[in-house]
Amino acid sequence: MKFLTFLENFYPRQINISWTCGVGKSQEIISSTELIMENPDGTFNVSSEVRISEDLLKDPGFRVQVSWEHESLDKPGRKELSIRDPEYTWNPIVEEIETPTLFYNTPVSLQCNISEYFPDAVTVKWLRRKDQKLYEESGAVSQSNKDTDYTYSCTAKLMITPTKNIHQGAEYICLVEHPSLKKPIERRTGKLNCEDTRFPNHPDMVLEEK
Q: Per CATH, the architecture of 93-195 is what?
């Protein structure tokens, strides 16, 4: 991942910029690339860039800090960013759970699409609520796809075979976690209504006696 800071309209040209990163007090100095440009009025602008491994961002405590010193400043300037900061924009977008028509004893897949997250570190938990009790169920998450904007997307799936005792009136909850989130994003099915496959509710069905 690329981090960039841009400073404008300073004079004289000499400016010191330093970057550090790490978790907690364990901060390491990292190398950066600067590009200085002169303005028509004789002042200067500078862009400073560092690249950080995506894997490091999977720790929500990881942060990147940039500081700059210039003779026009009484004290150094500083800015810090972590994946939990409000200006971090690559949080997961979680769509509503897709719930097809349910028939007793017929396997079906509940699925929830997740997109626009970075880094690739989504985890999903499925819960079933019935009669004020919660039960955790095992689901699966498809392999993440990297999109053209370098964010990721995937689909969380849960296979169930509806039964009257377990699923009728139950509600499924999908909890999506990511290092950028302080708490999981939650999506719900609402109470399920299952149909009996022996007597499908079809307007063209005609029952005849022989």
A: Sandwich (2.60)
Question: pLDDT digits over 20-54, tens only?
Answer: 999 988 789 999 999 999 999 999 999 999 999 99
Q: Delimit the CATH 2.60.40.10 region(s) of the chain.
A: 2-82, 93-195
pTM exceeds 0.90: no
Do 119 and 180 contact (CB within 8 A), yes or no?
no
Q: What would the CATH number be for the domain defined by 2-82? A: 2.60.40.10
Please give the Cα distance from 56 to 144 (Å, whole number). 18
25 SS3 class:
coil
Residues 111-155 pLDDT 10s: 999 999 999 999 999 999 999 899 999 989 999 999 999 999 999
Taking alpha carbons only, the member of 61, 53, 70 closest to residue 14 is: 70
